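Renewal narrative, Specific Aim 1. Our central claim is that a sequence can be written position by position from structural information alone. The example that follows is taken directly from our test logs and has not been curated for this report. It begins with the structure tokens describing the chain, in the order in which they were read.
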């Protein structure tokens, strides 16, 4: 799987890239045809935001998590991607499916599926 890591207002270290690759490994084992992942790490004052977009044949997953720690944000977003991949696995295979999940510290994650 091709992994692209982008940092906004933060310098992305090798350890952060490796952590994201390790966490996204669970999503790839769930859906092996996923071939591209884009992780965007953003820091805004005390908010650390991780956005993960995973694309593959007939499926696009987008997850966003916000916590006070970047590693926790990556972990939360990867967990949401894993749950979204599981939800998309039970969905019918007709057409392209986009799953968007956003999580902040005050809200619980609810996957929303949009057929295209």
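The sequence written for that structure reads:
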């Amino acid at each position: 799987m091709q992994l692209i890591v982008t940092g906004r207002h933060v310098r992305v270290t090798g350890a952060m890239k490796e952590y994201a690759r390790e966490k996204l490994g669970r999503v790839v084992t769930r859906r092996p045809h996923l071939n591209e992942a884009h992780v965007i790490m953003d820091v805004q004052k005390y908010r650390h935001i991780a956005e993960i977009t995973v694309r593959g044949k007939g499926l696009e997953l987008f997850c966003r998590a916000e916590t006070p720690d970047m590693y926790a944000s990556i972990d939360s977003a990867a967990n949401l991607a894993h749950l979204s991949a599981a939800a998309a696995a039970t969905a019918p295979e007709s057409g392209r499916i986009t799953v968007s999940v956003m999580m902040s510290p005050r809200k619980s994650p609810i996957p929303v599926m949009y057929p295209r």
